[in-house]
Specification:
Two copies of one chain form a homodimer. By secondary structure, chain A is of the alpha/beta class. Chain A contains twelve helices and ten strands. The first copy, chain A, has a single domain, classed as Aldolase class I (TIM Barrel, Alpha-Beta Barrel), CATH 3.20.20.
């Protein structure tokens, strides 16, 4: 039994643009979010409050958030998330007026010890400890907290990641007070059955309404993985317009699953999302043009050619 | 319950190269087939005996077949198919010594009347009538006959194609004496549930051992469609190394589902195919180099970059 409704969390402005070499102007990021909202996307990961030294692409995090939440621009029905790696990031996110704060923060650690060490220079347990005051503060301010588990299927250093590792991190996120657990195949190596096992591991600690799948299309498996999760009743998925983004840790990697390809599947299955495919293609065209390329996703290319 | 074993029918040399604008030398086609056989593919659609006036890419059909079946080259365990559109094509296919004949011919018509008219200038019923002597002769000579239903999901002129239309053509192919029925999403517009309905329509007239899925990746759905059919017990799929081919009838269309992406899925599901992924990538690299491009499939790109 497939779910009747699916929530698509659009991560292109954050996970997509964060991994694009080509810089994108702040105004263009704001316009991208506006177009995505116009298409009906009700949950958008807008930016990331990471160190501008390490991730210059996100140096304008405050300006982007202020822009998309400005009076007359903001659609109050849309939930805006921002990735926050530490307390300093959260302080920056909350430095401006309350209207500019994100509705929700995203914290992430990994299911792979090696990846966590190389990516954040601490153990998984230490990363969770580090998040404790971040989550506490965010919750005290009334913000949602989305936890995300990177490398839930595979790790560039360790290879296959077992479901037990995912369950352990999910338990840690739950204990911290996260209200959502995202299962991320960061390097896009998972196949359907293993993805279901990873998702089952997260479901030991979170309700099905509180889990989501985040799949990269590195090996062309992302949409099958979405389908396999739908068959488990999972009804929240991250996706990235025009398949924006890649993974700096995996050479040759394709980016996130393209929102338009997930939407095409869901529409065909009769699953409601509230998203208009044609308007979504407008957003895909817009950002692809700004990045100086044609829309790279297969569905995007085919559907735009048929216009 | 997924099948324990899947047969991959490699159609790159035919359906792939037929739709490539870039001409490929006969020797390279023969080498491609050799590499595919070396990878463990046991069923290969080698060429097409179509009019060289309409399809110059396949003008060397007899030479290719003679080459891959030459003494000292041929692997007797491998089944070679050739597409044959009419009696003239069959006569050409059988003009040489018996050792050079294909093991099997492929005849195809469409589930869409408009597509059939535009593509073959006759009605679906007329196309089936036209095949009657072709199938009879092939069977008399002891060759296998694979029937294929184009546009089983959608048609560039008619839009969605209903399962009833597929069932009707499947019945016609069965009556003709075809021993296999392929369900082809020629323009790559089908999604999982509709593909299952089309497959169920074919299964009204053919056993599950005698049906196969042929999916184009135009809208990024091909691998999900394979997975949805696997869940029905279907265990034979066409695929094209490096995702070779496109569709001349659909602008902007991506080609066939890439063999390496199907194989990556099946391997992850623990389904046996007898095909070695690494050697398959050698074949993908070879033909892509000959076509002057890098391997375009996502799995091919990622796995080759990781070498």
């Amino acid at each position: 039994m497939l779910p009747a409704h699916v929530t698509l969390v659009e991560v292109g402005p954050r996970d997509g643009l964060q991994n694009e070499v080509q810089p994108v102007a702040t105004a263009d990021k704001i316009e991208l979010v506006r177009l995505l909202e116009h298409a009906g996307l009700g949950h958008i990961e807008v930016t990331s409050f990471v160190s501008p030294k390490w991730v210059p692409q996100m140096a304008d995090a405050s300006a982007v958030l202020a822009g998309v939440r400005a009076p007359g621009v903001r659609d109050a029905r849309v939930r805006h998330s921002a990735l926050v790696p530490n307390l300093k990031g959260l302080e920056t996110a909350l430095a401006g007026p309350r209207a500019s704060w994100p509705d929700e923060i995203v914290v992430f650690t990994a299911a792979s010890e090696s990846f966590c060490q190389r990516n954040t220079h601490c153990s998984i347990d230490e990363s969770l400890e580090r998040f404790a005051p971040v989550v506490a503060r965010a919750r005290a301010e009334g913000l949602g907290v989305r936890g995300s588990i990177s490398c839930a299927l595979g790790c560039p250093y360790e290879g296959d990641v077992p479901p037990e590792a995912v369950a352990r991190v999910a338990a840690g996120l739950k204990a911290l007070g996260a209200d959502h657990c995202g299962v991320s195949d960061t390097i896009g190596v998972g196949t359907a059955r293993r993805v279901q096992a990873a998702m089952e591991a997260a479901l030991r600690h979170f309700d099905v309404d509180a889990v989501s799948g985040h799949f990269h299309d590195t090996c062309g498996q992302a949409l099958v993985n979405v389908y396999a999760c739908l068959q488990m009743g999972v009804h929240t998925f991250d996706a990235s317009v025009a398949g924006l983004g890649g993974c700096p840790y995996a050479r040759g990697a394709t980016g996130n699953v393209a929102t338009e390809e997930v939407l095409y599947l869901l529409r065909g299955l009769g699953i409601d999302t509230g998203v208009d495919l044609d308007r979504l293609l407008d957003a895909a065209s817009f950002i692809s043009a700004r990045l100086g390329r044609t829309v790279p996703s297969r569905a995007g290319r085919a559907l735009l050619a048929a216009r």
